[in-house]
Amino acid sequence: MTRERTTLSRRRLLAAAPAGALALASPLLAAPDTEPPASGKTSAIPPLPPPLSPDVFRARQERALAEAKKRGFEALVVLPSTNLGYVANTDPGRSERLIALILRSGTPATLLTPSFEEERVKRDAVVGRTVSWREHEDPAALAAKLLSGASRIGLEGTTDVFTAGRLRAATGATLLDATAVFDALRMVKSDAEKGFIRDAAWRTTAAIAATHERLREGMTEQEVGEILAGEFRKLLVRGGGLVQFGASAALPHGGPGERRLQRGDVVLMDCGCRVRGYSSDVTRTVAFGTPADDVRKVYAAVDEAQRAGLYAFRAGAVPEEVDRAARKVIEDAGWGDFFTHRLGHGLGMDGHEPPYLVRGNRVPLAAGNVCTIEPGVYLPGRFGVRIEDDATATDGGNELLSNRTPELLVLAR
User: Could you tell me the domains of the chain?
Assistant: First the structure.
């Protein structure tokens, strides 16, 4: 398969990837001279970056307690969740058996766990101590002892109603939603966190490019989805996502299904992977064979909308105004009714997290916020185009974490 666009050598790619060389100071420029490798060429794939040190998690626990104190909480209870992974480097999963981290000022971070699970859950956990309970014991009563004297307790925001009820009955305390505590910490990414997202985004664009090289007429979306997952594995990560051809691409979250690839189709891939627990989220839309004029026009409008969104995305900007900057470009081009979703979302340990670039969100962005910028136009029964990249807000503008594609890529046999 050949491309209309001139590709770059693998050596130049690997010399640049991925520790910062793909980042941009200007939101309006494409990435430097880098392009992901073709399929099967994995001999020089960069290793994964080292994990965070235990001291990082201890510092996060202290910061969580400081945020909790600002909100009048005397303790925090964190069930298995992304937030538990954030503060304690473990997320063993939930079941009817209570596992919970209890954070209180002046006492060690305590992980409450079933006794038969203790060795497993503390294998990676960064905590001061573990306290176990046996099958015939009531873990809520044990939690109440650890929380004795606390009258206002913050619960991690995804805590289920059943567990909250048990803890309320056992403690007699006022239980409050602590979502704001964790959002305040997680929305502003450290340099290390941004590095993980940048690395994940590089592997994602590499997997997409390698999959493009393997596209053949007659393949189904599901078959290409399996190829994409395999390319991620070659890049040392687990990843995947949406694969949509032609009219299927007009469904913002459609596919992959049994539709077969035909010449002239657009091919939309929306995918990502995780590196050290941090997610990427990248969408590329290309043409398989010569595209129709309308495809080129829509792509040009979406591309310009993304540029406008990136120009507006910076620390201090109001999220709904960033959305508006991109949306106006598509409206002016005549396709406003077909841009049916927000401009973007926060990105980190969860694939979708605050802040959201959407009408109604007027909380200014902060330096270190990482968001997707993903305008799209979806023409029902015909085709859809979405371009999505990951960026972090800075005081002077933003920094791209994925290597932006500046023009429509046409794949031809």
Answer: 2-35+188-412 (3.90.230.10), 54-186 (3.40.350.10)
